[in-house]
Amino acid sequence: METYGKSGVRRVIPGEYLASDPKGRACMLASVEKNKLVYVLNRDGQKEVRISSPLEAHKPGALVFALAALDTGYENPAWAALEVDYTESDQDYTGQAYRDIEKQLVYYELDLGLNHVVRKWSDAVDRTANLLFQVPGGTDGPSGVLVCGQESITYRHSNQDAFRVPIPRRRGATEDPSRRRYIICGVMHKMRGAGAFFFLLQSEDGDIFKVTLELASDDNDNKTGEVERLNIKYFDTVPPATNLCILKSGFLYVATENGDQYFYQFEKLGDDDNEMVFTSDDYPADTTAPYEAPYFHPRPLENMSRSVGIPCMNPITDCKVANLTNDDANQIYTLSGTGAHGALKTLRHGLEVSEIVESELPAKPTAVWTIKRTANDTSDAYIILSFATGTLVLSVGETVEEASDTGFLTSTPTLAVQQFGEDTLIQVYPKGIRQILANGEIKEWPSPQHRSIVAATSNQRQVAIALSSGELVYFEADSDNTLAEYDEKRQMSGGVTALSLGELPPGRLRTNFLAVGCDDSTVRIMSVAPDTCLESKSVQALTSPPSALNIMAMPDSSSGGSSLYLHIGLFSGVYLRTVIDEVTGDLSDTRTRFLGAKPAKLFRVMVKERPSILALSTRAWLGYSDSQTQAFTLTPLNYGGLEWGWNFTNEQCPEGIVGIQGKNLRIFTIDDLAENLLSESVTLRYTPRKFVLHQDYSLFYVIETENNVLPPHLREQLQNDPSVVNGDAAVLPPEDFGYPKGEKHWSSCIQVVDPVSEKEVLYTVELAENEAAVSISIAPFASQDDERFLVVGTGKDMVLQPGAPLSSTCGFIHIYRFLENGKELELIHKTKMDQPPLALLGFQGRLLVGLGKELHIFDLGLKQLLRKAKASVVPSLLVGLQTQGSRIVCSDVRESVTYVVYKHQETRLIPFVDDVVSRHTTCTTMVDYQTTAGGDKFGNLWLVRCPQAVSESSDEEGGGLHLLHEKGYLNGTPNRLDLMIHFYVQDVPVALQKAPLVAGGKDVIIWAGIQGTIGVLVPFLSREDVDFFQSLEMHLRADDAPLAGRDHLAYRSYYVPVKGVIDGDLCERFLVLDRGTKERVAAEMDRTVREVERKVQDIRTRFAF
Amino acid sequence: MADKLRAQQQLEQLQARYIGTTHPDTTKFEWTSNIMRDSYASYVGHQPLLHYMAIGYGEPKEKIRAFFLNKMIQPVGKPPEVQE
């Protein structure tokens, strides 16, 4: 391993491009400018790849646009690079050299004999070229590359002529016939048998073209290796991707740039259809020469069919946390996707459940069990339901039907059933225990007089019961599979509420422990070993009497193997999990979680071949060991009102769960333990940008805009134009083909979305006259009796081009009134602004508006908004507003945040404190009155705080003259903010919010990143925790170094040294370390592995999931 | 004198090896060009940032990438006229 580029992703660090020789002999790494390194790859005896020290092929002043390896067969490895040399244009003040710049296709060859790299060949190519694709060589083809540029795909090789085909343009009523496209990605595929290959190249619209090469033949019809022509034809249209991959099984994987990713299955390869084929014979190789543009008609998929989609949060443009469904925990709402794939997604913590059977019963059952007939059966034979006054036995076969003559007593409710010994069945009911032997004989054990059984637990060889008098009776299996009562009885101090024995470990005759829960809020562990029967081993005091107990062996990360857990459910709805020492019976490592307001019930179920615990309260939860870390995880099920659950096994459904929900019997399975977030989505019209929540109506108002896209009325007009030819009139669904492009046009709308009950868009306002929404807010106006209005800021004729500032003719602020409980909007009026208002916020019954550098306060008038105050508050462009009291936090597009105070009497806005670092702020939220959390475009999260004295002086009574007359410091406000925390998260944060995530949890800062990340910052409450995690982080930095050998501290300090944040992701890596490293790290910290894991997991479960 | 020469040579070596190493006669044009080239290379190299911009412009990432690389050729316009 060789680590380089520790200074980060810079223009001279070779790492932007990587191309490997197809035979695996060498690879080239190139930077954007100048540097190229070639590593020769050698394989030693064990097939381990070893790299040589790098060979350099640097060229100063050369910019690399693309890099591809050439297929040279077994000759020396070579690479092709698209380069531009800027040295001359940097000297020439006339600009002539810049205009004459040519893009070069350069071949680099690695001479394996001499072990050096030479620049072998270069030639000028299309100035707009941006991508290279390798053409098979050696015995497979002619070698060389495809050079893709604006409306051009050219075949180039050092010993061949150039052949060029243009990229066909779309034909259609709404298409601009003169628009030229680029290729954005593609894939080359070699078919079985030598010499057959093709390319699938995707244009920016998402259209895939099939490109093939034809080789010339000599007189005897043998292929000569000389290229004769290049062909291109339309293949199919899929969403625009960053890369394509063809699988051997006949699928195309489309790594879409935005939104869900897809697999497409090939049905044919477009060999014999009617699509026009364009060949290089008809087009000049020179891109500047005139030619007739080729056209095609896009159509629905013909050569492929969509098979599987992978849901994907990327990109997130905005995110809010709120509880709209009246669950006990908040949900996360995000805006995701672009174009017609834009969606409002709801994320909830939970496991997906698939229901198999639902059937209504005549009465409400209190419990349900399943039971096998003999110990060796794999399928359950009976489902037994207990009602308030009786028991119902159902036999499970082809169908489920009521069974009689099973031997079970049906005139009484049942407490427990068990398949016992080899082939006996046991039924425990309040007045006794019934044994049903294999030959049909029935034996009864009646409970003592005036006492009834209140709790029972059993496994295949043991039964324990508690009587109403508080006595415990214990039985074991006899040699003839019947019950043998132990003489030792034990009187408990209080009434027994729950018992548990636990499953029989394989190959053993008994478990050693019986857990007894009493109504004096204790749990006792008793021995049931023959010589110490019913002796107390340990006691644990609880906060409330236990309603359910379950002893269970589960895989455990701390011990490396499996541990015996005691699960405790309390009447208060709290769930506890403790570890039982398998020798002494001592209880340790108790973890607590609140499940819901009802007494908790616990059941052992098998999910994905793992013993898991089903915990039922107001919500159903599943406790299981995580497949990756083995750590115990508790996740709610997406299944309401479950009152009882039991394992159900038969041939069709090996891992089902049978449950009771009111009067219904339900059978369901849990299919996926890896995905613990449930997601639902509502499709939107355009790329969603921002949204606001109306708390009273539980509705979201989303602004959506699409740049360079024809608005609907223009589309319609073009479509209905009488001159449109028949074939062009087809309307293409935008979700498959994208919206028709139109330069400098905007499509924009406001949509009302109900994510809770209707789960759809309720109302849409399409903006006209080339306006596009840029900001949205809900503001109450004091002048209208505090009625709330929807306020939307727009920009007219905005021009947004890379490398140029935003320009527009003017901006507007639209005021909408909510109608029909917010389900419709009515435009009251719109007010013209001199530029688009990028930030809006309701403030003390008025409206705050950010216009350029200025902050304005408006009041609502009858015809338009009326300006009440204005001030220039930030250095470049105001993009965000937050407020508490009279304080306003203004974020600037590149100059961090400025705090502004509003002086009510003078209607004066005074900026009084700003920041020292120019942060390109994307989102902010006020954590408290002094402190603001924010994120910037470079992927940092930070917290800045106003000094106490400055904060107090800003709020002094009066008109704030003292603030006005204070001298500014270094062209800014008189005071500066203090940096509290700083942390590099890599993804660009787009939304921040302070809210709790779990029921009864404390506030955390939740952030969402553009690439689909959702993260939280958890506040530390004690110094002790900080020290612990700091030391754990330090150890893990050393003991769990990243794969590429980079420094973790340097990574988190990418732009600004990390401050006040501990990397939780790194700390959680502790759970997946190997046993030895875990123990070493724990020992160095003077803790046990179990303690460390407990701390790491606790911090997650206390605040998030 | 020899020391001065060596220092000069060392500086030249550094300038050849590390792009953007300045010298006493660095012009504003050279300096700003260097900064802008660094910025554009950073936009291209950091995927989340490139994605953020691509969504803003409503174009595919590949087009924005090619555009930024193209801007690196002459990021701040023509060089100033040299007065001899």
Describe the fold and architecture.
The complex is a heterodimer of chains A (1105) and B (84). In chain A, 8% of the residues lie in helices and 48% in strands. In chain A, the strands form 20 sheets. In chain A, strands 1, 2, 3, 4 and 5 form a five-stranded antiparallel beta sheet that branches. In chain A, strands 15-16-17-18-22 form a five-stranded antiparallel beta sheet, with no helix packed on it. In chain A, strands 37, 38, 39, 40 and 41 form a five-stranded antiparallel beta sheet that branches. Chain A is mainly beta. Chain B has a domain at 29-76. Chain B is built from four helices and no strands. With 84 residues, chain B is an all-alpha fold. Chain B starts with a helix and ends in a 13-residue tail after the last helix. Chain B is elongated. Chain B has helices at 2-17, 28-45, 47-57, 61-71. Classes of the chains: A mainly beta (1105), B mainly alpha (84). At the A-B interface, helix 1 and strand 59 of A face helix 2, helix 3 and helix 4 of B. Chain A: Residues 354-670 form the RSE1/DDB1/CPSF1 second beta-propeller domain. Chain A: It is found in: Nucleus. Chain A: Associated with the spliceosome.
